[in-house]
Known about the structure:
Blueprint: E1 5-9, E2 14-16, E3 24-36, E4 42-47, E5 51-52, E6 66-79, H1 80-90, H2 92-113
Antiparallel strand pairs: 1-6, 2-6, 3-4, 3-5, 3-6
Helix pairs in contact: 1-2
Amino acid sequence: xxxxxxxxxxxxxxxxxxxxxxxxxxxxxxxxxxxxxxxxxxxxxxxxxxxxxxxxxxxxxxxxxxxxxxxxxxxxxxxxxxxxxxxxxxxxxxxxxxxxxxxxxxxxxxxxxx
Length: 114
């Protein structure tokens, strides 16, 4: 993952907000981020070694949550196109499968919270 952009965030900094266009996947290299719902309540934490922002794989994906740094955080960013290309190196079918799973997850989240 050395070819990808790295970005650091200070404590409390917003990584992105709900409603933003999704352009990247994020891999937490160090630290922890909090995921916030529309009311600003924390509903999940993502720690070192984990990922967030998977909706970026979908064409025209929109962020469904706000993410902020909980303490200092460093992330590696992967663009949506890079993610699709990486998946296609294994199998072009993987892109279709991942997009379908993410769409299903998005619909379930909307039904649960919408």
